[in-house]
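User: Structure tokens for this complex, please. No commentary.
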Amino acid sequence: MRASSVEQIIIETLSKEHAHLTSQQVFEIIRKRLPAVNQSTVYRALTRLVDSGKVSVSDMGTKAVVYELLTDGLHHHLVCQKCRQIMTIGHEEVEDFFGDLQLKNHFQIVTNHLILFGICENCQVGTNTNTEEM
Amino acid sequence: MRASSVEQIIIETLSKEHAHLTSQQVFEIIRKRLPAVNQSTVYRALTRLVDSGKVSVSDMGTKAVVYELLTDGLHHHLVCQKCRQIMTIGHEEVEDFFGDLQLKNHFQIVTNHLILFGICENCQVGTNTNTEEM
DNA sequence: ATTGCATTTGCAACTATTTGCATTATAATG
DNA sequence: CATTATAATGCAAATAGTTGCAAATGCAAT
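Assistant:
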């Protein structure tokens, strides 16, 4: 794979923002530095970065998927379907499960960013105000 | 939730087909019985069915997500990124992991259909012919 | 049957994502 | 340095999926 300028800028961008960004947000930020860049170029660069394991892509239940840099250790997320809160959990909470599955099914897991939907502690009691359903 | 005719037909369709269908496939099949039905109606009915837990929606790594009826027991899938083979695993292989996470994070998991990507046994050795990359 | 209300539907517009193809840029090789 | 191969990009068109709004429908209580 060639060193693509767009890929580099995406990595720098995701590294700086340190958050989950949609392809649109990535596109907007990149345009400030490369005004002529095409949106499909951004999509394709993001796809390459995901394929090479540098970036994760997740459907958080919003209408657009989000991208995140995977440099500082693997992690996963729990997403509350009521209040939309996103909790981050470390890979150590997932490691053993993955290991078991790999052994039992002779399958080498590549997935590196798990998104699990559910109801957070706060929303499990009936008293929360933020009841925006999914 | 009211008994929607489209929802009923979707359930019958998914029940008969017993497979992962894209929204387009569901749409085509439903059109045979309700020729005037609109595609957005199908999307919305599918969304309602997913929200109510009757149907699962999964991104299998193809360009369109797929839907599956969840009547006969929970299950999950391992998808090979090389040969695209889909393996099905029972919920019992996932149960303990989910239970642990729920306890540790005080989070009630709703996700009922896990998709994990990786490399199947066959494709782990270098000798397979079907090397269509993701 | 009629009314009132909430849900579902159709439609059209809009956002999100993918893809084919021609062109350009970079790297590799002679 | 010139040539060739490969990967990246732009553009436009196509496919996926979402949403606002108004109209239609189903359900429940008269």
